[in-house]
């Protein structure tokens, strides 16, 4: 960037570009939001429990929806926090309340997902410690999902908090050229 000019940006023109920007957004959250990794750790544990207990298709569907809702709301919460910070850097009660409401939605979704897991897997949850020991003895390969879950949880400790004024990565040169070509001449 030179002379204070903003980097070129514009509407994503193709589906591939839209995916690339969405993926860049996810990577940014992944790099800066510890909570996102904790949600992934929890979802991995939930799905591992479903796998060990031989959950039926409908149970999988409900669990995937419940865990997905938490992750998507964390995603939106991060977007809302960023938008609020863009709108004001001063202490504004409404700004604080908007952030609290968005964070509350994530918390509510996480509690509902936990409740959903308990209701859907039911008494099977009590078998999990026994299944863990049995798998460790007889089929250790069934324990492998615990490794990514552990990685998500431990790596969340090292995630630096999002700095709101952190520069957004520049779009690839090809996208910048396309965006510039689409902008109407003044
Ligand atoms: N501009 C502001 N004016 C008033 N209160 C604010 C403002 N910004 C943040 N707050 C308060 O501080 C709390 C923490 O804000 P922050 O931006 O650090 O979000 P956070 O909840 O820590 O986000 P994260 O999900 O990244 O952990 C908010 O929930 C809100 O109550």
TrEMBL record:
<keyword id="KW-0460">Magnesium</keyword>
<comment type="similarity">
    <text>Belongs to the bacterial diacylglycerol kinase family.</text>
</comment>
<keyword id="KW-1133">Transmembrane helix</keyword>
<feature type="binding site">
    <location>
        <begin position="99"/>
        <end position="100"/>
    </location>
    <ligand>
        <name>ATP</name>
    </ligand>
</feature>
<feature type="compositionally biased region" description="Basic residues">
    <location>
        <begin position="175"/>
        <end position="186"/>
    </location>
</feature>
<keyword id="KW-0444">Lipid biosynthesis</keyword>
<keyword id="KW-0812">Transmembrane</keyword>
<keyword id="KW-0594">Phospholipid biosynthesis</keyword>
<dbReference type="GO" id="GO:0008654">
    <property type="term" value="P:phospholipid biosynthetic process"/>
</dbReference>
<feature type="active site" description="Proton acceptor">
    <location>
        <position position="74"/>
    </location>
</feature>
<feature type="binding site">
    <location>
        <position position="33"/>
    </location>
    <ligand>
        <name>ATP</name>
    </ligand>
</feature>
<dbReference type="GO" id="GO:0016301">
    <property type="term" value="F:kinase activity"/>
</dbReference>
<feature type="transmembrane region" description="Helical">
    <location>
        <begin position="36"/>
        <end position="54"/>
    </location>
</feature>
<feature type="binding site">
    <location>
        <position position="33"/>
    </location>
    <ligand>
        <name>a divalent metal cation</name>
    </ligand>
</feature>
<keyword id="KW-1208">Phospholipid metabolism</keyword>
<feature type="transmembrane region" description="Helical">
    <location>
        <begin position="60"/>
        <end position="80"/>
    </location>
</feature>
<keyword id="KW-0418">Kinase</keyword>
<feature type="transmembrane region" description="Helical">
    <location>
        <begin position="141"/>
        <end position="159"/>
    </location>
</feature>
<dbReference type="InterPro" id="IPR033717">
    <property type="entry name" value="UDPK"/>
</dbReference>
<feature type="binding site">
    <location>
        <position position="74"/>
    </location>
    <ligand>
        <name>substrate</name>
    </ligand>
</feature>
<dbReference type="InterPro" id="IPR000829">
    <property type="entry name" value="DAGK"/>
</dbReference>
<keyword id="KW-1003">Cell membrane</keyword>
<dbReference type="GO" id="GO:0005524">
    <property type="term" value="F:ATP binding"/>
</dbReference>
<keyword id="KW-0443">Lipid metabolism</keyword>
<keyword id="KW-0547">Nucleotide-binding</keyword>
<feature type="transmembrane region" description="Helical">
    <location>
        <begin position="101"/>
        <end position="121"/>
    </location>
</feature>
<feature type="binding site">
    <location>
        <position position="81"/>
    </location>
    <ligand>
        <name>a divalent metal cation</name>
    </ligand>
</feature>
<keyword id="KW-0479">Metal-binding</keyword>
<feature type="compositionally biased region" description="Basic and acidic residues">
    <location>
        <begin position="163"/>
        <end position="174"/>
    </location>
</feature>
<feature type="binding site">
    <location>
        <position position="21"/>
    </location>
    <ligand>
        <name>ATP</name>
    </ligand>
</feature>
<dbReference type="Pfam" id="PF01219">
    <property type="entry name" value="DAGK_prokar"/>
</dbReference>
<keyword id="KW-0067">ATP-binding</keyword>
<dbReference type="GO" id="GO:0005886">
    <property type="term" value="C:plasma membrane"/>
</dbReference>
<dbReference type="GO" id="GO:0046872">
    <property type="term" value="F:metal ion binding"/>
</dbReference>
<dbReference type="InterPro" id="IPR036945">
    <property type="entry name" value="DAGK_sf"/>
</dbReference>
<feature type="binding site">
    <location>
        <position position="81"/>
    </location>
    <ligand>
        <name>ATP</name>
    </ligand>
</feature>
<keyword id="KW-0472">Membrane</keyword>
<protein>
    <submittedName>
        <fullName>Diacylglycerol kinase</fullName>
    </submittedName>
</protein>
<keyword id="KW-0808">Transferase</keyword>
<feature type="binding site">
    <location>
        <begin position="27"/>
        <end position="30"/>
    </location>
    <ligand>
        <name>substrate</name>
    </ligand>
</feature>
<feature type="region of interest" description="Disordered">
    <location>
        <begin position="163"/>
        <end position="186"/>
    </location>
</feature>
């Amino acid at each position: 960037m030179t002379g204070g000019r903003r980097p070129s940006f514009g509407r994503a023109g193709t589906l591939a570009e839209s995916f690339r920007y969405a993926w860049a957004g996810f990577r940014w959250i992944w790099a800066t939001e510890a909570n996102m990794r904790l949600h992934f750790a929890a979802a991995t544990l939930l799905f591992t429990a479903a796998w060990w207990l031989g959950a039926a298709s409908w149970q999988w569907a409900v669990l995937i929806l419940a865990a997905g809702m938490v992750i998507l709301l964390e995603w939106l919460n991060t977007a809302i926090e960023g938008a609020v910070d863009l709108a004001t850097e001063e202490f504004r009660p409404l700004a604080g309340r908007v952030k609290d409401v968005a964070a509350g939605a994530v918390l509510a979704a996480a509690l509902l997902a936990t409740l959903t897991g308990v209701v859907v897997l039911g008494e099977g949850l009590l078998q999990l410690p026994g299944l863990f020991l049995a798998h460790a003895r007889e089929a250790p390969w069934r324990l492998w999902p615990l490794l990514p879950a552990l990685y998500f949880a431990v790596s969340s400790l090292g995630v630096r908090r999002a700095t709101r004024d952190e520069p957004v990565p520049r779009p690839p040169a090809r996208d910048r050229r396309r965006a510039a070509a689409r902008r109407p001449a003044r």
